[in-house]
Amino acid sequence: TTQVPVLRALLHFVTGSTEAPVGGLPPLTVAWTPSRMPTAGTCGKKLHLPTSHTAYDTFQDAMDEGVVQDS
Q1: String of b and e for 36-71 (b: at least 16 CB within 10 Å)?
Q2: Distance of alpha carbon 61 from the chain centroid
Q3: What is the pTM of this model?
Q4: How far apart are CA 1 and CA 61, in angstroms?
């Protein structure tokens, strides 16, 4: 489906890999940050989501931009 490339890009953004490990993914930690763009700590599998957006559209644009820049 069309979601597969998006999910693969998100997996790469968070883990640094485009493939899930054979034994499955380790737990993912989600944290909130006052920044405009999302960031990820690939070693600790931590996703930092921005809180500075007041509308879903701008949040989605920032997520799309952050994930695409990393891929």
Answers
A1: eebebeeeeeebbbbeeeeeeeebeebbeebbeebe
A2: 12
A3: 0.76
A4: 21
